[in-house]
Amino acid sequence: MQGQPAIPILMYHQVDTPAPRGAPLRGLTVSPAAFARQMGLLHALGYRGVCMSELEPYLGGMLKGKVVGLTFDDGYLNNLEQALPLLQRYGFSATCYVVSNGVGGTNAWDHVRGIASKPLMGPQHLHAWIAGGQEIGGHSCDHVDLTAVAPAAARQQIGACKSQLEALIDAPIRHFCYPYGRYTRDHLNMAREAGYTTATTTRRGRVHAPLAGGAGLLELPRVPVWRATTLLAIWLKMMTGYEDRKTAGASSGD
Protein backbone atom coordinates (compact mmCIF):
# COMPACT_ATOMS: atom_id res chain seq x y z
CA MET A 1 0.00 0.00 0.00
CA GLN A 2 1.31 3.40 -0.92
CA GLY A 3 2.23 5.50 2.12
CA GLN A 4 1.08 8.98 3.00
CA PRO A 5 2.96 11.61 0.97
CA ALA A 6 5.06 14.06 2.94
CA ILE A 7 2.73 16.61 4.51
CA PRO A 8 3.56 20.33 4.24
CA ILE A 9 2.45 22.68 7.01
CA LEU A 10 2.55 26.20 5.58
CA MET A 11 3.65 29.01 7.88
CA TYR A 12 2.19 32.48 7.39
CA HIS A 13 2.26 35.64 9.49
CA GLN A 14 0.49 38.66 8.04
CA VAL A 15 -1.76 38.85 4.98
CA ASP A 16 -1.73 42.53 4.16
CA THR A 17 -0.07 45.17 2.01
CA PRO A 18 3.68 44.73 2.64
CA ALA A 19 5.59 47.52 4.36
CA PRO A 20 7.74 49.83 2.19
CA ARG A 21 10.96 48.48 0.73
CA GLY A 22 13.71 48.33 3.35
CA ALA A 23 11.36 47.87 6.31
CA PRO A 24 12.49 45.19 8.82
CA LEU A 25 11.06 41.71 8.18
CA ARG A 26 8.98 43.00 5.27
CA GLY A 27 9.13 39.53 3.78
CA LEU A 28 6.82 38.09 6.44
CA THR A 29 3.81 39.92 4.99
CA VAL A 30 2.07 38.23 2.05
CA SER A 31 -0.21 40.44 -0.02
CA PRO A 32 -3.90 39.49 -0.21
CA ALA A 33 -3.59 39.03 -3.97
CA ALA A 34 -0.65 36.65 -3.57
CA PHE A 35 -2.44 34.74 -0.81
CA ALA A 36 -5.50 34.40 -3.09
CA ARG A 37 -3.33 32.93 -5.83
CA GLN A 38 -1.68 30.54 -3.39
CA MET A 39 -4.98 29.23 -2.04
CA GLY A 40 -6.24 28.92 -5.60
CA LEU A 41 -3.17 26.86 -6.48
CA LEU A 42 -3.72 24.48 -3.55
CA HIS A 43 -7.29 23.98 -4.68
CA ALA A 44 -6.29 23.48 -8.31
CA LEU A 45 -3.74 20.85 -7.28
CA GLY A 46 -6.45 18.96 -5.41
CA TYR A 47 -5.18 19.81 -1.94
CA ARG A 48 -7.39 20.63 1.04
CA GLY A 49 -6.04 23.22 3.45
CA VAL A 50 -6.69 22.15 7.04
CA CYS A 51 -6.12 23.36 10.59
CA MET A 52 -3.96 21.41 13.01
CA SER A 53 -6.85 19.51 14.58
CA GLU A 54 -7.99 18.31 11.16
CA LEU A 55 -4.40 17.48 10.24
CA GLU A 56 -3.75 15.29 13.30
CA PRO A 57 -5.17 12.03 11.92
CA TYR A 58 -3.04 12.45 8.80
CA LEU A 59 0.06 13.08 10.90
CA GLY A 60 -0.66 9.89 12.84
CA GLY A 61 -1.30 7.83 9.73
CA MET A 62 -4.98 7.16 10.48
CA LEU A 63 -6.02 9.04 7.33
CA LYS A 64 -4.34 9.52 3.98
CA GLY A 65 -5.01 12.19 1.40
CA LYS A 66 -3.90 15.40 -0.23
CA VAL A 67 -3.87 17.81 2.68
CA VAL A 68 -1.73 20.77 3.65
CA GLY A 69 -1.65 22.32 7.10
CA LEU A 70 -2.31 26.06 7.20
CA THR A 71 -0.95 28.09 10.12
CA PHE A 72 -0.71 31.80 10.97
CA ASP A 73 1.58 33.06 13.72
CA ASP A 74 0.85 35.87 16.20
CA GLY A 75 -2.88 36.53 15.72
CA TYR A 76 -2.93 39.55 13.43
CA LEU A 77 -6.28 41.18 12.72
CA ASN A 78 -5.47 41.11 9.01
CA ASN A 79 -5.66 37.30 9.15
CA LEU A 80 -9.36 37.70 9.91
CA GLU A 81 -9.95 40.56 7.50
CA GLN A 82 -7.92 39.36 4.53
CA ALA A 83 -7.26 35.62 4.86
CA LEU A 84 -10.57 34.35 6.24
CA PRO A 85 -12.71 35.15 3.18
CA LEU A 86 -10.22 33.34 0.94
CA LEU A 87 -10.04 30.33 3.24
CA GLN A 88 -13.83 30.14 3.23
CA ARG A 89 -13.96 30.45 -0.56
CA TYR A 90 -12.22 27.09 -0.87
CA GLY A 91 -13.59 25.42 2.24
CA PHE A 92 -10.19 25.50 3.95
CA SER A 93 -9.46 25.77 7.65
CA ALA A 94 -6.37 27.15 9.41
CA THR A 95 -4.87 27.46 12.88
CA CYS A 96 -3.96 30.93 14.11
CA TYR A 97 -1.43 30.87 16.97
CA VAL A 98 -2.34 33.67 19.37
CA VAL A 99 -0.24 35.51 21.96
CA SER A 100 -2.65 35.49 24.89
CA ASN A 101 -1.55 38.75 26.58
CA GLY A 102 -1.50 40.44 23.17
CA VAL A 103 -5.18 39.88 22.43
CA GLY A 104 -6.68 43.21 21.42
CA GLY A 105 -3.24 44.86 21.38
CA THR A 106 -0.37 45.06 18.91
CA ASN A 107 2.82 43.16 18.09
CA ALA A 108 4.71 44.87 20.93
CA TRP A 109 7.50 42.27 20.88
CA ASP A 110 8.55 43.55 17.43
CA HIS A 111 8.91 47.22 18.34
CA VAL A 112 12.52 46.85 19.51
CA ARG A 113 13.41 45.77 15.98
CA GLY A 114 11.74 48.76 14.38
CA ILE A 115 8.80 46.81 13.00
CA ALA A 116 5.60 48.81 12.63
CA SER A 117 2.73 48.20 15.05
CA LYS A 118 -0.10 46.14 13.64
CA PRO A 119 -3.36 45.34 15.45
CA LEU A 120 -3.91 41.86 16.80
CA MET A 121 -7.30 40.19 17.06
CA GLY A 122 -9.39 41.03 20.10
CA PRO A 123 -11.81 38.64 21.83
CA GLN A 124 -14.63 39.43 19.40
CA HIS A 125 -12.31 38.77 16.47
CA LEU A 126 -11.21 35.43 17.88
CA HIS A 127 -14.85 34.40 18.09
CA ALA A 128 -15.43 35.57 14.51
CA TRP A 129 -12.40 33.56 13.35
CA ILE A 130 -13.76 30.42 15.02
CA ALA A 131 -17.29 31.06 13.75
CA GLY A 132 -15.74 31.24 10.29
CA GLY A 133 -14.60 27.62 10.58
CA GLN A 134 -11.07 28.31 11.80
CA GLU A 135 -9.03 27.34 14.86
CA ILE A 136 -7.03 29.09 17.60
CA GLY A 137 -3.72 27.80 18.99
CA GLY A 138 -1.33 29.08 21.65
CA HIS A 139 1.82 31.13 21.02
CA SER A 140 2.86 31.87 24.63
CA CYS A 141 1.58 34.65 26.89
CA ASP A 142 3.99 37.37 25.75
CA HIS A 143 5.86 36.09 22.69
CA VAL A 144 9.06 35.55 24.62
CA ASP A 145 12.09 33.53 23.59
CA LEU A 146 11.55 30.48 25.78
CA THR A 147 15.25 29.66 25.71
CA ALA A 148 16.11 33.06 27.21
CA VAL A 149 13.97 32.83 30.34
CA ALA A 150 14.11 30.65 33.46
CA PRO A 151 12.38 27.25 33.28
CA ALA A 152 9.61 28.37 35.64
CA ALA A 153 8.91 31.41 33.47
CA ALA A 154 8.88 29.28 30.31
CA ARG A 155 6.45 26.84 31.91
CA GLN A 156 4.18 29.76 32.84
CA GLN A 157 4.35 31.20 29.31
CA ILE A 158 3.35 27.87 27.81
CA GLY A 159 0.70 26.76 30.29
CA ALA A 160 -0.96 30.07 31.18
CA CYS A 161 -1.32 30.91 27.49
CA LYS A 162 -3.49 27.82 27.10
CA SER A 163 -5.72 28.56 30.07
CA GLN A 164 -6.09 32.26 29.19
CA LEU A 165 -7.14 31.53 25.62
CA GLU A 166 -9.50 28.77 26.69
CA ALA A 167 -11.22 31.24 29.02
CA LEU A 168 -11.54 33.75 26.17
CA ILE A 169 -13.01 31.40 23.58
CA ASP A 170 -14.64 28.81 25.88
CA ALA A 171 -13.09 25.95 23.93
CA PRO A 172 -10.01 23.73 24.29
CA ILE A 173 -6.65 24.95 23.00
CA ARG A 174 -4.77 21.88 21.77
CA HIS A 175 -1.98 23.26 19.59
CA PHE A 176 1.09 25.38 20.34
CA CYS A 177 3.76 27.21 18.39
CA TYR A 178 7.16 28.09 19.91
CA PRO A 179 7.82 31.85 19.67
CA TYR A 180 10.73 32.61 17.33
CA GLY A 181 10.90 28.86 16.76
CA ARG A 182 13.24 28.51 19.74
CA TYR A 183 12.84 25.64 22.17
CA THR A 184 14.66 22.84 23.96
CA ARG A 185 13.66 19.31 24.92
CA ASP A 186 12.49 20.70 28.24
CA HIS A 187 10.04 22.96 26.42
CA LEU A 188 8.67 19.99 24.48
CA ASN A 189 7.95 18.33 27.81
CA MET A 190 6.36 21.51 29.16
CA ALA A 191 4.06 21.68 26.13
CA ARG A 192 3.06 18.07 26.64
CA GLU A 193 2.45 18.57 30.36
CA ALA A 194 0.33 21.66 29.63
CA GLY A 195 -1.96 19.50 27.51
CA TYR A 196 -1.03 20.46 23.95
CA THR A 197 -1.21 17.62 21.42
CA THR A 198 0.94 19.26 18.73
CA ALA A 199 3.50 22.03 18.57
CA THR A 200 5.01 23.64 15.50
CA THR A 201 8.47 25.11 14.99
CA THR A 202 10.20 27.24 12.38
CA ARG A 203 12.44 24.31 11.42
CA ARG A 204 12.01 23.93 7.69
CA GLY A 205 10.71 20.78 6.10
CA ARG A 206 7.62 18.68 5.48
CA VAL A 207 6.22 16.14 7.93
CA HIS A 208 6.92 12.53 7.02
CA ALA A 209 3.97 10.67 8.46
CA PRO A 210 3.05 8.58 10.28
CA LEU A 211 4.20 10.04 13.56
CA ALA A 212 3.44 7.76 16.49
CA GLY A 213 3.05 10.48 19.08
CA GLY A 214 5.91 11.34 21.40
CA ALA A 215 8.22 14.24 20.69
CA GLY A 216 7.54 14.17 16.95
CA LEU A 217 4.14 15.81 17.25
CA LEU A 218 5.62 18.48 19.51
CA GLU A 219 8.36 19.67 17.15
CA LEU A 220 6.69 19.74 13.75
CA PRO A 221 8.59 21.42 10.91
CA ARG A 222 6.87 23.89 8.62
CA VAL A 223 7.19 25.38 5.16
CA PRO A 224 7.60 29.18 5.27
CA VAL A 225 5.69 31.37 2.84
CA TRP A 226 7.13 34.86 2.33
CA ARG A 227 6.19 37.99 0.42
CA ALA A 228 8.31 36.99 -2.57
CA THR A 229 7.38 33.29 -2.62
CA THR A 230 6.22 32.50 -6.16
CA LEU A 231 3.62 29.92 -7.16
CA LEU A 232 6.41 27.79 -8.62
CA ALA A 233 8.24 27.99 -5.29
CA ILE A 234 5.05 26.96 -3.45
CA TRP A 235 4.79 23.93 -5.73
CA LEU A 236 8.45 23.01 -5.18
CA LYS A 237 8.14 23.45 -1.41
CA MET A 238 5.07 21.20 -1.25
CA MET A 239 5.73 18.55 -3.86
CA THR A 240 9.49 17.97 -3.71
CA GLY A 241 12.22 17.59 -1.11
CA TYR A 242 13.23 21.25 -1.51
CA GLU A 243 12.27 22.20 2.06
CA ASP A 244 13.37 18.87 3.52
CA ARG A 245 16.93 19.64 2.48
CA LYS A 246 17.00 22.99 4.26
CA THR A 247 19.10 23.16 7.37
CA ALA A 248 17.37 23.16 10.75
CA GLY A 249 17.03 26.52 12.40
CA ALA A 250 14.72 29.28 13.48
CA SER A 251 13.23 31.98 11.34
CA SER A 252 13.96 35.48 12.55
CA GLY A 253 10.42 36.68 12.16
CA ASP A 254 8.13 34.33 14.04
What does this structure look like?
- This protein has 254 residues and is α/β, with parallel strands linked by helices.
- The protein has a single domain, classed as Glycoside hydrolase/deacetylase (TIM Barrel, Alpha-Beta Barrel), CATH 3.20.20.370.
- It is 32% helix and 17% strand.
- It contains 7 helices and 10 strands.
- The strands form 2 sheets. Strands 1, 4, 5, 6, 7, 8, 9 and 10 form an 8-stranded parallel sheet that branches. The chain has a two-stranded parallel sheet with strand order 2-3.
- Helix 1 packs parallel to helix 3 and helix 5 (151-169) packs parallel to helix 6 (185-194).
- The chain is globular and about 45 Å long.
- It starts with 8 loop residues before the first strand and ends in a 15-residue tail after the last helix.
Query: Strand content of the residues, in percent?
Result: 15-25%
Largest sheet: 8 strands, parallel
Number of strands: 10
Helix content: 25-40%
- SS-based class: alpha/beta
- Domain count: 1
Number of helices: 7
The top-level CATH class is: Alpha Beta
Rg (CA only): 17 Å
Report mean pLDDT, rounded to a whole number: 93
CATH superfamily: Glycoside hydrolase/deacetylase
The residue ranges in which pLDDT falls below 50 over 5 or more consecutive positions are 248-253
CATH topology: TIM Barrel
The global form is globular
Q: Which CATH architecture is right?
A: Alpha-Beta Barrel
First-last Cα distance? 38 Å
- Along the chain, the helix and strand elements come as EEEHEHEHEHEHEHEEH
